[in-house]
Design brief:
The chain has about 190 residues and is an alpha+beta fold. Helices cover about 25% and strands about 40% of the residues. It has helices at about 10-20, 50-55, 90-105, 130-140; strands at about 1-10, 30, 40-45, 65-75, 80-85, 120-125, 145-150, 150-160, 165-175. The strands form two sheets. The chain has a five-stranded antiparallel β-sheet. It has a four-stranded antiparallel β-sheet with strand order 3-1-8-9, with helices on one face. The two termini are about 35 Å apart.
Length: about 190
């Protein structure tokens, strides 16, 4: 069993734009690596990859475009993350709802926390000066990127290491331009 999650991955130009606004490392502040930049759709946790793949394979949703807008901070247990926000997007929400429904129907684990779409840019340990965080938030409050079109989502595995999580793309699932249901093969 592997630790799994579903996410949107970015092209190099999108990653370059996100990296360009990341705060610099130091004094308890760790920017997310180039390879680690993604937008989590649903955290699954430890599960059998084949079971997840079988559940996701028939899923259909349409491609959509996202607008990245602004930055913010989530705080928890004395630590925090700095993130780039996402403007409201019906296509993203439909995809998320379908992913959760498919995982539930298959009896697979998934995160039940409220979905707040964002891209984590940096992690902050306790003690990072709030003035430094406030400067970052003020400097990038008008951040705008996109619209960026997404025509696939990705199943990732995650390996937690002392230097941070390492993500491996396990499977890419295309989004199609049709919402028609998959019908059984009429020849059977």
């Amino acid at each position: 069993m592997k630790r799994l999650f579903l996410a949107l991955t970015f092209t190099d130009p999108v990653k370059e734009a996100l990296v360009s606004i990341q705060p610099k490392a130091g004094a308890g502040l760790r920017p997310i690596s180039w390879q680690g930049l993604h937008l989590t759709l649903c955290f699954i946790g430890k599960a059998e990859m084949e079971s997840v793949h079988q559940a996701l394979s028939p899923l259909q949703a349409q491609p959509f475009s996202l607008l990245f807008k602004g930055v913010g901070q989530h705080r928890f247990s004395g630590r925090s993350v700095l993130w780039a926000g996402v403007a409201p997007c019906d296509g993203l929400m439909v995809l998320r709802q379908r992913l959760v429904a498919v995982l539930e129907q298959a009896g697979l684990p998934h995160d039940t926390k409220r979905f707040r779409p964002h891209v984590t840019l940096a992690r902050c340990k306790q003690g990072v000066p709030q003035s430094r965080i406030a400067r970052f938030l003020k400097q990038h409050e008008a951040f705008l990127l996109g619209p960026i079109r997404f025509d696939a989502f990705v199943l990732y595995s995650s390996d937690t290491r002392p230097e941070g999580a390492v993500y491996q793309c396990e499977q890419i699932y295309p989004l199609t331009d049709t919402d028609s249901p998959i019908l059984p093969d009429s020849r059977t």
